[in-house]
Amino acid sequence: MHMDMSQYLEIFIDESKEHLQTMNEILLILEGDVDNLSHLGEIFRIAHTIKGMSGTMGFTKVADLTHKMENVLDLVRNGNLKVDSTIVDILFECFDALEEYIDNLEKTGKEGDLDSSELVKKLTIIAENKGTAGTTSKKSEAKKTIKEESPKAEKVEAGDVDFHIQLNDIDSIINKAVELGVKSYLIKVTVDAGCMLKAARAFIVFNTLERFGEILKSYPLAEEIEDERFDESFEILYFSKLDEHYIQTELMRISEIASVYVRTLNESEMAIEEKKEDVEIDLNHIESKETDVKAKEESQSKGDKGKTSKTVRVEIGRLDNLMNLVSELIIIKTRLEDLDTTNHRSNDQGSKNNMNEAIEYLERITTSLHDAVMKVRMVPVERTFNRFPRLVRDLSKELGKNIRLFMSGEETEVDRTVIDEIGDPLIHLIRNSLDHGIESPADRMKAGKDETGFVALRAYPDGNTVVIEVEDDGKGINPEIIKRKAVEKKIVSKEEADLMSDKDLINLLFRAGFSTVDKVTDLSGRGVGLDVVKSKIEAINGTVEVVSILGQGSKFIIRLPLTLAIIQALMVNLNEEKFAIPLNNIKEITTIETSKITMVQDQEVVLYRNKTLPIIRMKDVLEIEYAPETLDELIVVIVKKGDVEAGLVVDSLIGQQEIVIKSLGKYLTGIKAIAGATILGNGSVALIVDPNQLF
Amino acid sequence: MSDMREFVTFRLNQEYYGINIQNVENIEKVLPITRIPYTLNYVKGVINLRGIIVPVVDLRARFGLEKRTTTDESRIIIVNLEDNKIGMLVDSSSEVLQISEDDIDAAPNVRREFNNEFIKNIGKKNGRIIMLIDLHKVLNIEHVE
Q: Which 76-105 residues of chain B touch chain A by CB within 8 A?
């Protein structure tokens, strides 16, 4: 049962990230509430879990760092050390280091070169200085309490445990073990009741054991364990040179293991009882014994190029639903096959009806299937939001401003790909609000505002889109300053700027080469402006707009599509070419009399519903040659972007269709007005127009 | 005996060209090509290659040869270069040739019919001359480490 460790790397990374996120949250709470020991207990638990996991995976740097963190946290927990800002800062540094290790592991499969020995030294100094200050008795008392609190400390005398493993010839097994110079053990491992990945835990158990000895037999069988076909516990017959306490301690280090019972086969019950006494061994002792094993493992894994792929954790119910739909799909396939054979015999109305019915049924299933697959890909925005409390904390310290972050709607779900792309733009917008938006405490007092600034990060679903807002109660955006800057930087001409509304002026912020702050701070002015934010969001078919009230604050509103891969689109003809226009951009479809079109500043417009509607000739946009139109009426697809509208002139409409968005690949990137391509029913390729880029 | 190198050969007009076989994924009959706006003149469009959208470069246009409609013989050679999957439209393509290192020379600087920089080497096989093209230059893709 030898499996590749790398397949568990993903799980390790996923879990570590989750743990780190929790740690981050608690550290932030801890900073404001240093006396609350329950937070520390939680951080201790996380450090301990990560230590265990990384130890098993052979990531020594992570294990070492978390071990030292544990030592310090332990002292704090037991009142031997008082939490102050230095300690919180060091814990934050540890968190950063751990995060970087995990990042490296995800990217390269290795921990990377980051040297945390300084940090380890700092932790050691704290632990030693304060640790020795406490009395010895207190220390041992402290040790006891950990044991009691630790969820893993459950230990039952091995003699009481019933084993299911069939041992027909115990004697011969024991003899064989003696022959080989090893001891034989029966091990019963029970995983936590709430454990989601039992097979993975079992694998780590097997793997750990195989490092130190040989597994002869298991109950249930190894294959069954691999398929997760066991309740909460499994049993192993094991040969090893190691003693049982070592085995037990090693196995208990694996996360989500509730208990481990080890029974030595060739020893009496008495002997086991006796040995139980010194199960409480010094962890440090084990650690040192273990180092050469780890070193060996590290050299083994050096050859691996363990880049991990993107994963999504999926609720089992969603997969069940998916499975159901697939079985329905198979049923309908059989039904269609049946219809086909009956069709050969008769060609009457009845079979035609049957066919239509079947197709309708098929349509229903594919729609549900699409829905179900989309749900599998959905993850809560929490994953991205989680890092912002820390960001705001660090930045406000750096800027000398008091800022409170308010978050809501973290549970809102979006597609996994969106999550990955939205992080950087949001960081940028938050930095922006903190740096440029919120005033210094003195200025805020002068303006009659509360000294503490306020930044809100909200997410909520809205129809077929998800909205994320970044709002601050800072000084707002002054359209006049933007106007002056835009003219100075020749982004627009003076005349153009004079004609623009305040709203249009504010939206100039998103143009390339715009930055309103003269002095370049460490935070902003890194050469990335709001134009990058905009293009990143547009790359995932989203939109961003800003509303601002001078003196009261600004709000950036990001709209994201719920799904990326499959959309509803309107198919249109231009000459003999077919194009798709995403339905969510379309407001309505109408005809417009050619005679009503007038020219305003080189732009064709028409008065439609009492509003001037710019007319865009799609054939011009898409470089299609055509003779001047002689039609009296044009077919116009009215598209909207925010509350701006434009009419796209097309030759004819084909109809609404569900299309799968495909990328044009990196050889053809950044093609104006094109969002991607899709494959039509006949196998040919049609381009998807991106109306957002047209006006 | 020196090392043999393998090339996929194709034809444009009456000339033979070769591409290092390591860059060639497969050779396809001409599939319907969808035009893409705002691209260079030699980007013919994209095709649906079994569910993947693949851009197609018209080598005649790239080499500055006169336009010609595709025939039954026309082929799209799918190459993979620096992780880009790209199709190249050629007049015909049929064989894989082994050319010995000894028969591969530097490209002489005499041909003026088209941009000479696309030809890296000249290979000889059975009295035939095969121009070995520099894919990076032809497809205008930079070398990646």
A: 83-86
Identify the CATH number of the domain in which residue B106 sits: 2.40.50.180
What is the token pair recorded at B65?
């040869």
**Residue B102 counted as domain residue:** yes
3-state helix, strand, coil in chain B (%, to 5): 10, 50, 35
- In sequence order, what DSSP letters do the residues of A233-265 get, joined into one string? EEEEEEEESS-HHHHHHHHHTSTTEEEEEEEET
Q: Which residues of B touch A579 (CB under 8 A)?
A: none
From chain A, pick out residues whose CB is under 8 angstroms from the CB of B81.
none
- The answer to whether residue B144 sits within a structural domain is no
Quote the mean pLDDT of chain A.
Answer: 76
Among all residues of A, which ones are annotated catalytic? 48, 70, 432
What distance in Å separates the CA atoms of residue B145 and residue B143, rounded to the nearest whole number?
A: 7
Question: Is-cis flag, bond preceding A220, omega within 30?
Answer: yes
Angle of CA points A45, A46, A51, to nearest 5°:
100
Q: Do A664 and B34 touch (CB under 8 A)?
A: no
What pTM value is reported for the model? 0.47
Instruction: Give A268's pLDDT tier (boundaries 50, 70, 90).
Output: very low
Here the tokens at position B42 are 């030699």
Burial category of A621 from C-beta neighbours within 10 Å (exposed 0-12, middle 13-18, buried 19 and up): buried
The one-letter amino acid at B37: P
Strand order, beta sheet including B92-100: B92-100, B4-12, B15-20, B128-133, B119-125, B104-106
Closest CA to A466 of A507, A499, A418, A500: A418
- Beta-carbon-side half-sphere exposure of residue B57 (alpha carbons within 13 Å): 23
Which domains are assigned to chain A?
6-149 (1.20.120.160), 158-278 (3.30.70.1110), 316-377 (1.20.58), 381-477+516-561 (3.30.565.10), 566-693 (2.40.50.180)
Say which residue the tokens 């300053």 belong to: A481
Q: Identify the band that residue A67 occupies on the pLDDT scale cut at 50, 70 and 90.
A: confident
ipTM reported for the complex, 2 dp: 0.87
CA distance B74 to B94: 10
Which two tokens mark A655?
Answer: 């109809």
SS3 A681: coil
Phi/psi of residue A670, nearest 5 degrees: 60, 40
Cα radius of gyration (chain B): 15
Residue A476 contacts by C-beta under 8 Å, 6 or more apart in sequence? A437, A548, A549, A550, A551, A552, A553, A554
Sign of the alpha-carbon dihedral angle for A679, B89, B81, B3: positive
Q: Which residue is associated with the tokens 């249930």? A: A220
Closest CA to A414 of A580, A584, A570, A565: A565
Give per-residue pLDDT as tens, A180-237.
Answer: 777 788 888 888 776 767 777 787 888 778 777 778 778 777 777 777 777 778 888 8
Of the candidates B39, B51, B139, the beta carbon closest to that of A679 is on B51
How many domains does one find in chain B? Answer: 1
Q: Which among A665, A673, A679 has CB closest to B85?
A: A665
Contacts of A573 (CB under 8 A, 6+ apart): A579, A650, A651, A652, A653, A654
- Strand ranges of the sheet holding A233-240, from the earlier edge strand across to the other edge: A213-219, A233-240, A183-191, A257-264
Q: Which amino acid is at A47?
A: A
Containing domain of residue B39, as a range?
4-139
Tell me the CB-side half-sphere exposure of residue B135, using CA atoms within 13 A. 22
Q: Which residue in B32, B38, B55 is closest to A665 by CB distance?
A: B55
Q: What is the average pLDDT value for chain B, to the nearest integer? A: 85
- In this structure, is residue B145 part of a structural domain? no
Q: Packing angle between helix A244-252 and helix A283-301, nearest 10 degrees?
A: 70
Strands B52-58 and B84-90: parallel
Check: CB of residue B37 under 8 Å from CB of residue A673.
Answer: yes
- B105 assigned to some structural domain: yes
